[in-house]
Design brief:
alpha/beta, OB fold (Dihydrolipoamide Acetyltransferase, E2P), Rossmann fold, 3 domains, 8-stranded mixed sheet, 7-stranded mixed sheet, 9 helices, flat
C-alpha cells in the first residue's frame, strides 16, 4: 500500500501542480490544489524533482478555489487549472514569467497586463481515437498517461469543433478495427474545418467513400490522411481550397499546418509585434512560418525578408507573395535557422527583426542578434524559460528589454506565450 500523508500546499509549480514540502525537504507535487490547501494525499512515484502525489481528501481549503466549468476536469489532461478563480489564475500565469526572468537576472521595463483569450476560442484540437471490441473511445489523453478520456464537452475549443465530435466518433467507429488507433487533428481555418487523420489503419474503397460522405455532410473544407511513421500524407477529400488569412493575404494552409491557437491570441501577438518594430521599414522575419507576422507587416508597407526552414510553410508563403502581384514587398529565404542562424553581417541591412522560434528557443540566433546592431527586436515565445535564456543573451549583447506582452492562449493550462520588445 502506498504511503498516505497530510501536507500543506505552499505554491503552484510550473506544470500547474500544487507543491508541498516534506520534513526532509523533498517536494511533493499534488495536482488540482491551491496554495493554503491542507490535503491528505497518496505519495506516488519518485521523480527527479520530488514525488508525485494524488489528493485523497481536502482537509482545509486555501484561497482562490473555483468550480471547474468542465465535467472532465481532473481526468482529461488538457487543462490543469480550472479549479482556480480568475484572479488567482492570472496572478499565477504572470508569476511564471516573473520567475523565469528573475532566474536569469532580468528586468523588463514594463510587463503589460495579461491578454487572456476567452473560453470557446481554441481553433485546433489533437484528438485520439481508440477502437475497442464493441465501441470506440474518442477524446484527449488523460493526464500523464496514454489513456484516452472519452470527450462529451470542452469549454476551451471552438463550438464548431466540439459539435463535430459525435459525428467523428461515428465515422471512426466504422473505419477502425478493434485495437486500431488514430490521431485526429482538426483546425478551423478561414475556409472551414480542416481534418487530418493520422493512422496506419487500412481504409479501402469503402472507407474512403465514407470519409467523402462525412466531409460533405459536415461541410469540411478538406480531409487528409497521414501514416504515423511517414512525414508526408495524401489529401482524401478537397471540397475547397484551405486558406488562412494573415493581414490582407490568404495563404494556402498545408494539412496539419501551424496556426496560433486562437484568432484572439494571434491578434494580441500581432499587435504587439507591430508596436515593437515601430517605424522600421526593412524587417527580417525569422522562423516566419506561413507569414503570421511577416504578411501583416508587408501589408502595412514594410519590406520583409521571411526566413523559414520548413518547406511546406515556405512554399505557402512564397505563393502568397506571388499572388499579391507586386502589392507586397516580401521575399522568402529557405533556411534552417537552428543550423545556420543569420549572421551579424547578414542582419546589418535590417531596421528590425521579428523572431518566433519553437518552444526550445533560438540560442544560436539570439547570439548572432546580440552581436548585431539591429535597432529593434520583437521576440515571440511560447516558453518563458527558453525566452528568458535567450533574452539574457540579447541583454548581454547590449539590448534593453523594453516591455513584454504576456498572452494566455492556452486557457487553464500551464502554457504562457509572450511578445517582448528589445531596443539596442
Amino acid at each position: 500500500m502506498k504511503l498516505e500523508i497530510e501536507v500543506d500546499i505552499r505554491e503552484i509549480g510550473t506544470r500547474g501542480d500544487g507543491i508541498a514540502v516534506l520534513a526532509n525537504g523533498e517536494r511533493v507535487f499534488v495536482p488540482y490544489t491551491v496554495p493554503g490547501d491542507r490535503v491528505r494525499a497518496r505519495l506516488g512515484e519518485k521523480r527527479p524533482d520530488g514525488y508525485a502525489g494524488r489528493v485523497i481528501e481536502i482537509l482545509a481549503e486555501g484561497e482562490g478555489r473555483a468550480t471547474p466549468p468542465c465535467r472532465h476536469f481532473g481526468l482529461c489532461g488538457g487543462c490543469a487549472l480550472q479549479h482556480m478563480d480568475e484572479a488567482h489564475y492570472r496572478r499565477w500565469k504572470l508569476a511564471r514569467l516573473e520567475t523565469a526572468l528573475a532566474r536569469h537576472g532580468l528586468e523588463a521595463g514594463e510587463i503589460r497586463p495579461l491578454a487572456v483569450t476567452p473560453p470557446g476560442s481554441r481553433r485546433r484540437a489533437d484528438f485520439t481515437a481508440v477502437r475497442r471490441q464493441r465501441d470506440l473511445v474518442f477524446g484527449l489523453n488523460a493526464r500523464a498517461t496514454h489513456q484516452v478520456v472519452d470527450l462529451a464537452e470542452c469549454p476551451v475549443l471552438l463550438p464548431q469543433i466540439v459539435t463535430l465530435i459525435p459525428a467523428l466518433r461515428e465515422l471512426l467507429q466504422a473505419l477502425l478495427r478493434p485495437a486500431d488507433r488514430a490521431d485526429v487533428i482538426v483546425t478551423a481555418t478561414d475556409s472551414g474545418l480542416d481534418l487530418v487523420l493520422v493512422s496506419g489503419a487500412h481504409l479501402g474503397l469503402g472507407g474512403r467513400e465514407r470519409i467523402a460522405a462525412f466531409a460533405e455532410a459536415a461541410d469540411l473544407a478538406r480531409v487528409s490522411r497521414r501514416h504515423p511513421k511517414a512525414r508526408g500524407g495524401e489529401v482524401l477529400v478537397m471540397r475547397r481550397p484551405v486558406r488562412a488569412r494573415f493581414g490582407e493575404s490568404l495563404v494556402d494552409f498545408p494539412p496539419g499546418g501551424f496556426l496560433q491557437a486562437s484568432a484572439e491570441g494571434e491578434a494580441a501577438l500581432r499587435n504587439a509585434v507591430m508596436a515593437a518594430v515601430g517605424p522600421a521599414r526593412r524587417i527580417a522575419d525569422l522562423y516566419a512560418g506561413c507569414g503570421t507576422f511577416g504578411l501583416p507587416l508587408a501589408s502595412a508597407g514594410r519590406q520583409v525578408e521571411a526566413v523559414e526552414g520548413d518547406a511546406h510553410a515556405a512554399d505557402a508563403l512564397e505563393k502568397a507573395a506571388r499572388d499579391a502581384a507586386g502589392r507586397l514587398r516580401l521575399t522568402v529565404t529557405r533556411r534552417d535557422l537552428e543550423r545556420r542562424p543569420l549572421a551579424p553581417d547578414e542582419l546589418a541591412r535590417f531596421d528590425a527583426a521579428v523572431i518566433d522560434p519553437p518552444r526550445a528557443g533560438a540560442r544560436g540566433q539570439a547570439e548572432a542578434l546580440a552581436s548585431s546592431r539591429v535597432p529593434r527586436l520583437a521576440m515571440v515565445s511560447c516558453n518563458p524559460s527558453s525566452f528568458a535564456r535567450d533574452a539574457r543573451i540579447l541583454c548581454g549583447g547590449g539590448y534593453r528589454l523594453a516591455w513584454i506582452q504576456p498572452v494566455d492562449q492556452f486557457l487553464w493550462s500551464p502554457h504562457l506565450e509572450l511578445m517582448a520588445a528589445f531596443q539596442a
